[in-house]
Write a structure and sequence with these properties.
The protein has one domain. Helix content is 75%, strand content 0%. It is built from five helices and no strands. Helix 3 runs antiparallel to helix 4 and helix 4 runs antiparallel to helix 5. The chain is elongated, with a radius of gyration of 21 Å.
Length: 173
């Protein structure tokens, strides 16, 4: 009992909400939220198609060109969502990247971008054999799945926060 209170009576500080009221208003008022809401599922759809083509190539040895093109398209979609996401963060949080609410998602996003960029470099520099390139694409895709999961978790936390806030203010959702 360091503080003079029994351990069970000490309360941990409430975690910072994902969005302050001002940030939530900016989030809900910017077109960049809609842009992210459209690009994220489009990118995921591109990912699923590309993953299918990559796995087909690994399983059969056929369709290398289609798989390669799909990884390039997926990478372009990733760059687009990263740029627009940075703009969204600037509008909502006042900084382009690494806002406290999305710090670890942004950190991991750079690993995703690094692997996708390494793929492009290796492809255009002819630095890896086709099978190695495809394995690099799968590594990039694995990091993308983790990163997408991080963002889905944050979306869920934002919804729960909105529900709690609504209940606290006597609003029914």
């Amino acid at each position: 009992m360091i503080s003079g209170q029994p351990p069970h009576s000490r309360r941990a500080a409430a975690p910072r909400p994902l969005y302050t009221e001002a940030e939530r208003v900016r989030r809900d008022g910017t077109v960049w939220t809609l842009v992210q809401g459209i690009l994220a599922p489009v990118q995921f759809l591109i990912f699923l198609v590309s993953l299918g083509l990559v796995l087909r190539y690994l399983a059969t040895g056929a369709g290398y060109e289609a798989a390669t093109l799909s990884v390039v398209v997926k990478t372009a979609a990733l760059y687009l969502i990263m740029i627009t996401g940075a703009i969204w963060e600037k509008v909502v949080f006042g900084q382009y990247l690494f806002a406290p609410a999305f710090f670890w998602e942004d950190v991991f996003s750079f690993a995703v971008i690094a692997l996708h960029s390494l793929y492009l470099y290796a492809l255009f520099a002819d630095a890896l054999a086709p099978g190695q390139l495809i394995l690099l694409a799968l590594a990039a895709y694995a990091t993308y799945v983790v990163n997408a999961g991080q963002f889905l978790w944050k979306l869920r936390m934002a919804r729960l926060q909105a529900e709690r806030t609504g209940r606290a203010q006597g609003v029914t959702a």
